[in-house]
Amino acid sequence: MTADYSARRAQLAAIPEVDAVAIVPGANMLYFTGLDLHLSERPIIALFTPDGQMSVIIPELEAPRLAARPDLAARAFPWSDTDGYEGAFSAAAQALGLGEGAVLGVDGMTMRVTEGLALQQAAPGLALRPVERALIAIRARKQPDEIALMRRAVAVAEQALDRLLAWVQPGMTERQIAAQLVRELEALGSSRLAFEPLVQTGPNSALPHGTVTERALQPDEFFLVDFGAVVDGYPSDITRTFCLGAPSAEMQTIFDTVLRANEAARAAAGPGVPMGDVDRAARAVIEAAGYGPYFIHRTGHGLGLDAHEPIPQIAAGVPDLLEPGMAFTIEPGVYIPGLGGVRIEDDVVVTETGLDVLTSYPRRLAPGR
Predict the structure, then answer these.
(1) Is 254 exposed, middle or buried (0-12, 13-18, 19+ CB in 10 A)?
(2) Which residues have a Cβ under 8 Å from the Cβ of 123 and sit 6 or more positions away?
(3) pTM of the predicted protein model
(4) With 70 as the cut, is the pLDDT of residue 274 above it?
(5) Burial of residue 351 (number of CB atoms within 10 Å: 0-12, 13-18, 19+)
(6) Percent of the chain with pLDDT over 70
(7) Most buried residue among 17, 43, 103, 253 by CB atoms closer than 10 A?
(8) What per-residue confidence (pLDDT) applies to 369?
(9) Strand pairing category for 54-59 and 75-79
(10) d(CA 126, CA 264)
């Protein structure tokens, strides 16, 4: 993906009441710099000051990756395993003027105590202020290049599901089916898994966050698949529920109810709509059908470099308004203990005039196109 990282970093300067912003490896570092580094026992921190300067405390063995990005114009503060990282932290704090009374914005959801303590030991009197909501608010408004990658991730996932359904048969275990799904995703070009796929059969499908087991799929029961592909860092997140055989009348009623709830939420979503109203639209359908107590989670979550992002939050009572560029899931569900559950999940993006539904896989109990 070709991204304008300088424009992204420029938005960090607008975060109020901080003298600099610190980011550790993860989705934020990837978004603002394109550096795909990982949290490990060797601390790495990127520091951004309002003048646009980027500085990086980095282990020597990772320094070539930073040197390979001259476009970042980053100042490196390398450290070795022999000397330890304390000196690099002190040198960076002094160079950036992070002394007594300075305020450093940090992603409190990702930064570890290790980095926080090292910063405060390097700069006594330095105050740490959580700015994770400001960071995710920037990331929440997806640009066209990001949406294009998510659309490709959806296409890979839907092709993998086609292949899986052509292969799967009653008698196969959840674990066997999940392993085959992973193989199909890899064969189609998914760079990694968005998350470990959920394959749940029969009564196991009544557990929204259950685990894959050795239970074998039986005819005439619910068969739920929740999974995602990843293309250039951007995931898809799709759930479909099937029945290989003849569903009971109750199963069909539950499915039809969830489908109407999914449709109602998609119809309600758009720019300027309170996030809670989208949840309300889905929940009202399920409650009217008598299944309200069995819809036991939010209607959707943000989607981006992280498969689960906190903005937008499609949940009851959230007053925040949807904005163009926000990507999220719509995934109402009904879960009946002892029988099973249905969840129908789509990936969507808010546009200037409405909603772009990225997923197109048929929403029906019978498997296949």
Answers:
(1) buried
(2) 90, 93, 94, 98, 99, 100, 102
(3) 0.94
(4) yes
(5) middle
(6) 100
(7) 43
(8) 77
(9) parallel
(10) 49
Distances (CA, A) of 147 to 232, 347, 358: 12, 11, 9
Give the Cα-Cα-Cα angle 198, 248, 212 (nearest 5 degrees). 15
Q: What pLDDT, on a 0 to 100 scale, did the predictor assign at position 2?
A: 72
Band (pLDDT 50/70/90 cuts) for residue 221 is very high
Start-to-end CA distance of the chain, whole Å, equals 31
Residue 208's Cα: distance from chain center in Å? 17
The amino acid present at 71, given as its one-letter code, is D
Show the tokens assigned to 243.
Answer: 């029945």
Instruction: Please provide the average confidence, as pLDDT, over all residues in the chain.
Output: 96
Using one digit for the tens of pLDDT, what is the confidence trace for 153-201? Answer: 999 999 999 999 999 999 999 999 999 999 999 999 999 999 999 999 9
Q: How large is the angle between the packed helices 174-187 and 144-167, nearest 10 degrees?
A: 130
